[in-house]
């Protein structure tokens, strides 16, 4: 079972790019990496998913190196509304491991 | 709004009691997942059902059980409750149309608003 490790918290300012890294050293061949965002008193919400290299959508990019032992969620030009907890998920066919989450605080 | 509904929103009960949490998935979603979220443990995967059958099991205690009914709604039963069971319980659903025995590793999960359980 893949174990995931994320920083507990990060601080940023509006307009900056934020990179949050998740370590998953024993990721399996069939595992995908997904990132979720969670606001207080709400359920997590899907941000982006990838297997390797780089994936980009309208809100974020996901970088996964060739060895897949880590992944980095990149949020371009964050705003105050990006203040939330960000979770990485390593998902196999019948295994699910969420990281403990990174609390991102964006200040003016 | 994710389309996943959970009831009740809040539940306060005493140690030793039994409670049932209910989840209705998004229309068309066959898979339901249950999670426990506490301050010190983060999001813990409990169990997944696909079209009425158990698909994957996580850190679910023996005092907890779940099922998915023919109309695809799911219930999580928590018994002999302890103080440490106080947490937010989330349900999520996904399409997972593959139906493969191993399940899908790429399905997007849509989470409900959660049920906050307080055990006194």
Your description of this structure?
The complex is a heterodimer of chains A (108) and B (120). Chain A is mainly β. Chain A is built from no helices and ten strands. In chain A, strands 1, 3, 4, 8, 9 and 10 form a six-stranded mixed β-sheet that branches. In chain A, strands 2-7-6-5 form a four-stranded antiparallel β-sheet, with no helix packed on it. Chain B contains no helices and eleven strands. In chain B, a hairpin with a 5-residue loop joins β7 (64-68) and β8 (74-78). Chains A and B meet through β4 and β9 of A and β5 and β10 of B.
Show the helix and strand layout:
The complex is a heterodimer of chains A (108) and B (120).
Chain A: E1 9-13, E2 18-23, E3 32-38, E4 45-50, E5 53-56, E6 61-64, E7 70-75, E8 84-91, E9 96-98, E10 102-107
Parallel strand pairs in A: 1-10
Antiparallel strand pairs in A: 2-7, 3-4, 3-8, 5-6, 6-7, 8-9, 8-10
Chain B: E1 5-7, E2 10-13, E3 19-24, E4 31-38, E5 42-50, E6 53-57, E7 64-68, E8 74-78, E9 87-94, E10 110-111, E11 115-119
